[in-house]
Amino acid sequence: MEITKTYINNLAYKIVGAAIEVHKELGPGLLEDIYKDCLVLELRRADVFVEVEKRIDIFYKGIQIERHYRQDIIVDNLVIAELKSQDGILPIHKAQLLTYMKLNHIPKGLLINFNVMNLVKEGLIPMVNEIFKNYPE
């Protein structure tokens, strides 16, 4: 199977649909980890390959450092879902997602804030990077 922009966007669409289902069921105001667990359940029910809290090693100038971080959700190694449950999305959250996408060599990311009344209008920011642009349509 050839990976295309359409394939990646369809995968992101499934993630958004699952996030909407979780938000519709639970509403705003809960802890991020609760939303994460429920989103993972929804994605696995949709038969999507999900990695949760994946350990990401950090390299600095070609040298692996001792510290690492854990990525919220990586779907099919093509889309990062970075989850929040906060009063709002700040510019640093967008920058953080772009950094995660770069470190993981992943073309698309979704910043999802569940602490909103309308997830699609207020809580969802899709992002792509240079890697995405290299995929065929």
Supply the helix-strand structural class.
alpha+beta
Number of helical segments with 4 or more residues: 5
Distance between the termini: 14 Å
SSE arrangement, N to C: HHEEEHEHEH
- Strand fraction equals 25-35%
Helix content: 40-55%
Q: What's the shape?
A: globular
Could you give a short account of the major beta sheet? 5 strands, mixed
Rounded mean pLDDT score? 93
Rg, Cα atoms, Å: 15 Å
Number of domains: 1
Poorly predicted segments: none
What topology, given as strand order, has the largest sheet?
A: 1-2-3-4-5
Quick rundown:
The chain has 137 residues and is α+β, with helices and mostly antiparallel strands. 42% of the residues lie in helices and 30% in strands.
How would you characterize the overall build of this protein?
It is a single chain. This protein is of the alpha+beta class. It has one domain. It has helices at residues 5-26, 32-45, 91-104, 119-122, 130-133, and strands at 50-60, 63-75, 79-84, 108-113, 124-128. Helix 1 (5-26) crosses helix 2. The chain is globular and about 45 Å long. The mean pLDDT is 93.
Lay out the secondary structure.
Layout: H1 5-26, H2 32-45, E1 50-60, E2 63-75, E3 79-84, H3 91-104, E4 108-113, H4 119-122, E5 124-128, H5 130-133
Parallel strand pairs: 3-4
Antiparallel strand pairs: 1-2, 2-3, 4-5
Helix pairs in contact: 1-2
